[in-house]
Amino acid sequence: MTFSLLARCPETGRFGMVISSSSPAVAARCAHARAGAGVAASQNITDPALGPRLLELMAGGAPAAEAVAQVVGEAPHVDYRQLMVVDGAGRVAHHSGRHILGTWAVAEGAGVIAGGNLLAHDGVPAAMVAGFTAAGGDFGDRLVAALLAGAAAGGEAGPVHSAGLLIVDRESWPVASLRCDWDDAARPIEAVARAWEVYAPQMAAYIQRAKDPRAAPSYGVPGDE
């Protein structure tokens, strides 16, 4: 039901994730990240509690593989879950249980991991990693490139209806959390890509407004000329 990619930017230390699915609101349930700790995906038949648990373990110093192994050892029904993580050192790890739906696969790179289930074919995650690695520009641009590459490679076996992008930096809150929770026209990836195109040039200003609105640029809305 899902294909996604998680990564750490070695230049900035940011963590990010992109995801798409035939299910509604996939990013709200499956995408988790914490500045300084890592990024985690809990997908397939999703247990949203597992993402925060993985982040808690990595924030406490557990490397990626150890965090995944501990969650696999303690979580109920883990054979139905697909988990992926990237930790603070860029190490990756994953678990795909024996009840994962349809065709599934995972692909890894340096500081990046992609995976999915009910895929059109098992080469989709590798196409996402290749798309991320080959892309230039901002970290968010590379994440979007990966999501578009996954879709171009076939994506999910059926139409997708939701998608999202999540980025954390040095703050306690996401610096970007862009979602399309449902699109009847099966174009949620394009919607998220467009949202990033609009949001990216303004992201620094939104961060500044949160930290010190006195030094922030004008809001650019009527009444704030």
Detailed description of the structure:
Helices cover 32% and strands 27% of the residues. The protein has 225 residues and is α+β, with helices and mostly antiparallel strands. The chain has a six-stranded antiparallel beta sheet with strand order 7-8-1-2-9-10. The protein has a four-stranded antiparallel beta sheet with strand order 3-4-5-6. Strand 5 (81-87) and strand 6 form a beta hairpin. Helix 2 crosses helix 3 (64-74), helix 4 (124-134) packs antiparallel against helix 5 and helix 5 packs antiparallel against helix 6. The model has no long low-confidence stretch (mean pLDDT 96).
Give the topology.
Elements: E1 2-8, E2 15-21, H1 26-30, E3 31-34, E4 38-44, H2 50-59, H3 64-74, E5 81-87, E6 92-96, E7 105-109, E8 112-117, H4 124-134, H5 139-152, E9 162-168, E10 176-180, H6 188-199, H7 203-211
Antiparallel strand pairs: 1-2, 1-8, 2-9, 3-4, 4-5, 5-6, 7-8, 9-10
Features:
225 residues, 32% helix, alpha+beta
Figure out the total of helices.
Answer: 7
Portion in helices:
25-40%
End-to-end CA span: 46 Å
Largest sheet: 6 strands, antiparallel
Which blocks of ≥5 consecutive residues have pLDDT under 50?
none
Rg over C-alpha atoms, rounded to the nearest angstrom: 17 Å
Q: Class by helix and strand content?
A: alpha+beta
Topology order in helix (H) and strand (E) letters: EEHEEHHEEEEHHEEHH
